[in-house]
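Exercise 7b. Backbone tokens:
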């Protein structure tokens, strides 16, 4: 990428990445790679070091860059900063230029002097800049506790950065730096939020959808594709694996105690997930279970269902209430898709009174009533892969 001369840059602050000490470089490089991919096709130049990252850009692309950078995990905060050579007269001129563009009544100045050879101490420089602002702006005053605007100045060896508006980043760790997981994506409100929260912790996800046509519809599959597309905003590629679950679900419904249908169904899903985790070289299973929300999510149910696999299961929503989950789904723009009235296989055969405290011995006895091993192998062999592309296409035909 060619370097672009301009007076504004996007300054990225790492946050949690700074706790990684000797491994920080690995995380910074991963973040750099994610940003480059998100901004592919734009005329940019990115400089990185262990303390900050800087993106030089064309002004016409600013809004798009801000929207894309805000979706990259590993960023604590970022700002659009004015970049000037570390020269007093140039810093003053830039500040006066900024003052012409904004209105405020109270302010404070915060200076960070990374270049210790700079002859003015941070506190003294803040006072100097504060005096310049008061001299050139009418009807304003300093308020160090609750200012309407804060002028940040970072003094480095070659350049100084001035900014007054900061954006909150997505936080967490860069995608994939902590491994890979498979998300059980049902199409409801919870599982996309669980995927988002797992990605935030540096886990790269692929999604698994259990489909039971004709009991579930193509519209339900398209709904899951649309949710996968939303999750793609937070990583650079995503596979959706569609598991044909009809024969297994029908066998459970035909042969098993009606009150145990959901429990047995979930145990079958976990057996399949274990095989898929091993097949696709993942490390964990991720799902949207929240303690006590439905019959299969009581602690007893979780233990009985979980007993079929030794693969770790991550439940990011385990201790969140429904309103918390809905708030996150609205934030990541999945809520309106999740509430579309297309049933998934977890809802089409729900008994009136499902067992909430299932017994393991009873499950084993019920599972002996049909040959699920062959059915699971057949389902694995017929998994359909849908690659979710990072492009302008929207899956909005039914939304």
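Sequence design result:
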């Amino acid at each position: 990428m060619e370097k672009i001369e301009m007076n504004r840059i996007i300054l990225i602050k790492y946050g949690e990445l700074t706790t990684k000490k000797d491994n920080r470089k690995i995380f910074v490089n991963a973040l750099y790679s994610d940003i480059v991919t998100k901004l592919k096709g734009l005329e940019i130049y990115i400089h990185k070091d262990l303390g900050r990252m800087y993106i030089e850009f064309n002004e016409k692309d600013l809004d798009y860059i801000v929207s894309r950078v805000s979706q990259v995990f590993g960023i604590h905060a970022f700002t659009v900063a004015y970049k000037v050579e570390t020269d007093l007269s140039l810093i003053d001129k830039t500040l006066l230029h900024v003052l012409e563009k904004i209105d405020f009544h109270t302010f404070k100045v915060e200076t960070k002097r990374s270049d210790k050879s700079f002859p003015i101490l941070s506190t003294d420089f803040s006072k100097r800049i504060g005096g310049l602002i008061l001299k050139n702006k009418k009807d304003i005053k300093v308020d160090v506790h609750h200012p309407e605007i804060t002028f940040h100045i970072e003094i480095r060896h070659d350049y100084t950065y001035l900014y007054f508006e900061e954006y909150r980043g997505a936080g967490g760790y860069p995608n994939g730096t902590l491994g890979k997981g498979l998300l059980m994506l049902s199409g409801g409100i919870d599982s996309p939020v669980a995927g988002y929260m797992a990605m935030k912790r540096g886990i790269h996800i692929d999604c698994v959808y259990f489909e039971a046509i004709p009991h579930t519809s193509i519209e339900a599959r398209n709904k899951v594709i649309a949710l996968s597309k939303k999750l793609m905003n937070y990583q650079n590629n995503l596979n959706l694996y569609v598991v044909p679950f009809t024969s297994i679900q029908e066998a459970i419904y035909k042969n098993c105690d009606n009150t145990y249908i959901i429990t047995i169904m979930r145990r079958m899903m976990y057996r399949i997930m274990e095989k898929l985790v091993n097949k696709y070289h993942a490390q964990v299973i991720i799902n949207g279970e929240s303690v006590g929300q439905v019959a299969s999510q009581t602690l007893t149910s979780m233990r009985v269902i979980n007993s079929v696999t030794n693969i770790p299961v991550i439940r990011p929503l385990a201790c969140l209430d429904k309103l918390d989950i809905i708030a996150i789904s609205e934030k990541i723009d999945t809520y309106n898709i999740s509430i579309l009235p297309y049933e998934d296989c977890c809802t089409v055969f729900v008994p009136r009174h499902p067992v909430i405290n299932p017994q393991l011995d009873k499950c084993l006895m019920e599972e002996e009533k049909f040959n699920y091993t062959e059915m699971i192998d057949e389902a694995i062999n017929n998994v359909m892969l849908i690659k979710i592309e990072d492009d302008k296409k929207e899956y909005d035909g039914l939304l």
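Instructor comment: Confidence is low (pLDDT under 50) at residues 1-6, 392-399. The two ends are 39 Å apart (CA to CA).
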